[in-house]
Specification:
This protein is 29% helix and 17% strand. It is of the alpha/beta class and 629 residues long. The protein folds into two domains: 253 residues, Collagenase (Catalytic Domain) (3-Layer(aba) Sandwich), CATH 3.40.390; 292 residues, no CATH class. It starts with a helix and ends with a helix. Bound molecules: zinc ion. The site of zinc ion has 6 residues, from α4.
């Protein structure tokens, strides 16, 4: 007896599998009413044997593979579950591996089946996700995924007899390396021996060292679905979900409503049915619709937040499995969305600078503004773009050391740094620190935001003939104006809400031929003779500005339309990429204007999101990713 085997016995762990007709030998007691399977290394697991096909399904007849026809017969799925969630690098940690397995005496149908497996795997995940959502929680399957975030479907050919029993299948797969302890194997077997079957470990202990959790030496369990029972999720009868749940350790026979054969009596439920256990009596305690989901009363095998001292709080709960994720995938894993964020607004401004100018000494200049004064920063966006540098935000009385470090990284010694605002915005101590670091300093500052905007336009931008007016009393319109002005070679000037400011009037008086655009409602009222670009709300205005000033952009910036700090640095970041700035709500649903813009602009290949999860939730990132795919 190997040391491994001893440790398994000591832990009172047994993997259960039901081999039809196989004699139940020495380990029958350890598997309870289940049947033992010996792995090639001597480990013992248990199975209840083949699950029967759902009513109306003949397991001996392969399912048709005409997936694109939504007949309601073969499974179809909503767009929301068309792909599996993608976590991290796709391979690290505990994972569920999808497999297309073919006995050698069967034709290779992988070309047809593998695309369907991707759909069926997503539908399997959907069962877990919706079961968790029923108690307000999040669970997704941690599948093995490829570098581009698609489901990784391995293909294996086994001998013509290796599909005869689950035990033979497990050995055949182990011989090809598919027995890793940190994997569970979801196998689509191109055969019609049975409907579905799985093995698992009888281990009711609550801790994460449960044998079903993949931390020990025990080989990864196998969920096998044969071709007559593939893809029945649309009927609410996903056999894939049933068998995979088994491999995660459910239903333990000690659960309140468990049968001795690994199922339960609480109908309707994905794991509960009359499995032939002696004295089986079903209790119809849940609606029929719960047939599609796990653990309808949340008390037997799957509850992400079981009540204290309940059975699932004190025994193994598959919702605790490390093979499941407790959060939506990180948006940064998307191929189309990049999030630019730091721990505070100054860290975000540094992150935005490093993102736009990743190489040292690669910026032509830099613009520095006060982190709490949005007006200076937003009118400075076209300046930063024209000078080919970042816009960095700092505290006003003394420069933040992180900003000074970033200036030293991104600029060559002796380069000019532009400070925005008067002494009240950025003190002489800030200017002295920049000078002391070896840079030249030019200050564009007036007595107020309106004057600073005019001075930036006149002195910093050379008095351009295109002017974008926006209110200086709130930030959303000016935020979208910054990137647009950069694209148009224009300046941003500020109105005093619905009233024109004297500083802007002064600029317009000395540039009478300037093309004037009034962005948003307040500016268009302040200058009714300008060309108005104003939507029904800030999101709509942002969309119209993007449409007016950008043709077929490949990049867009997106910021929270209700908070300005993160968006401040984002303006210069997206301007450096020649893209527009769009606005969103902090959580889904996304504003209709944003959705419409992204749906129309098929040229967009990447979206930059400015701010952390609190400013822009993962739902926003996910939604934007879908719209830009
Ligand atoms: Zn079962």
């Amino acid at each position: 007896m190997s040391a491994r085997r001893i440790s398994i016995v000591a832990a009172a762990v047994v993997l259960a599998t039901a081999l039809v007709g196989a004699p139940a030998r020495a380990r029958l007691d350890a598997c309870g009413a289940l049947q033992p399977i010996a792995a090639s290394d001597g480990s013992i697991s248990c199975t209840h044997g083949p699950d029967p096909a759902p009513p109306g399904i003949d397991a001996s007849v392969p399912r048709p593979l005409a997936s694109s026809t939504p007949t309601g017969d073969l499974s179809t799925t909503s767009a929301s579950s068309a792909a599996v969630p993608c976590y991290g690098d796709g391979t690290s940690g505990k994972r569920v591996q999808a497999l297309y397995v073919r006995p050698s005496d069967r034709p290779d149908r992988s070309a047809q089946v593998v695309p369907l497996i991707r759909q069926w795997a997503a539908e399997t995940d959907d069962v877990f996700a919706r079961s968790a959502a029923a108690v307000g929680a999040v669970r997704h399957i941690r599948f093995v995924t490829t570098a581009d975030c698609a489901l990784d479907v391995q293909q294996a050919t086994i001998s013509s007899s290796s599909d005869d029993t689950l035990g033979a299948t497990i050995i055949a797969l182990a011989n090809q390396g598919y027995d890793r302890p940190d994997r569970r194997y979801l196998v689509w077997m191109d055969s019609t021996v049975l409907c579905g079957i799985a093995n698992y470990y009888l281990d009711e202990r609550a801790g994460l060292d449960n044998a079903n959790n993949g931390n020990g030496p025990q080989p990864g369990a196998v969920a096998r679905i044969d071709a007559g029972c593939w893809g029945l999720a649309a009927r609410g009868e996903s056999v894939e979900a049933h068998e995979l749940l088994h491999t995660l350790g459910g239903v333990e026979p000690t659960a309140p409503h468990a049968t001795p054969l690994g199922h339960c009596t609480d109908e309707s439920d994905r794991m509960c049915y009359d499995d032939g256990s002696p004295g089986f009596v079903a209790h119809q305690t849940c609606p029929l619709a719960d047939e599609a989901l796990f653990d309808c009363n949340h008390d037997d095998y799957f509850n992400p937040s079981p009540p204290p001292s309940s059975y699932l709080a004190t025994h193994w709960d598959t919702a605790r499995s490390d093979f499941l994720a407790g959060a939506a995938p990180a948006p940064t894993s998307s191929t189309t969305v990049t999030r630019v964020a730091g721990t505070d607004r100054i860290a975000t401004t540094v992150a935005a600078s490093r993102d736009a100018f990743p190489s040292s000494q690669s910026a032509g200049s830099a613009v520095v503004a006060n982190a709490t004064s949005f007006a200076d920063a937003l009118t400075g966006v076209p300046l930063a773009a024209k000078k080919g540098g970042p816009l960095l935000l700092t505290t006003g009385d003394s420069i933040d050391p992180r900003v000074l470090d970033e200036l030293s990284r991104v600029l060559r010694p002796g380069t000019t740094v532009f400070l925005l605002g008067g002494q009240a915005a950025l003190s002489d101590a800030v200017a002295d620190a920049v000078t002391g670091a070896g840079f030249g300093v030019v200050r564009y500052g007036g007595g107020d935001r309106f004057a600073t905007a005019r001075i930036i336009a006149e002195d910093g931008l050379g008095g351009p003939g295109t002017v974008l007016e926006a209110t200086g009393q709130s930030f959303p319109d000016a935020l979208t104006a910054g990137a647009a002005a950069a694209a148009a070679g224009g300046a941003v000037l500020l109105t005093n809400g619905d009233t024109q400011s004297t500083e802007t009037l002064t600029y317009l008086a000395s540039h009478p031929a300037a093309r004037r655009f009034a962005l948003g409602g307040p500016a268009s009222r302040a200058d009714p003779t300008a060309q108005a670009v104003a939507g029904d709300d800030r999101y709509g205005t942002a969309r119209l500005v993007a449409e007016a000033f950008f043709t077929a952009p490949t990049v867009v910036g997106i910021a929270n339309g209700l908070l300005f700090p993160d968006a401040l640095s984002g303006g210069a970041n997206v301007a450096a990429r020649s893209g527009p700035m769009l606005l969103t709500t902090p959580d889904s649903p996304l504003p209709n204007s944003l959705v419409a813009y992204l749906e129309e602009q098929r040229s967009v290949q990447r979206a930059y999101l400015y701010g952390g999860d609190a400013a822009l939730s993962p739902n926003v990132a996910t939604g934007v990713a879908r719209l830009t795919e």
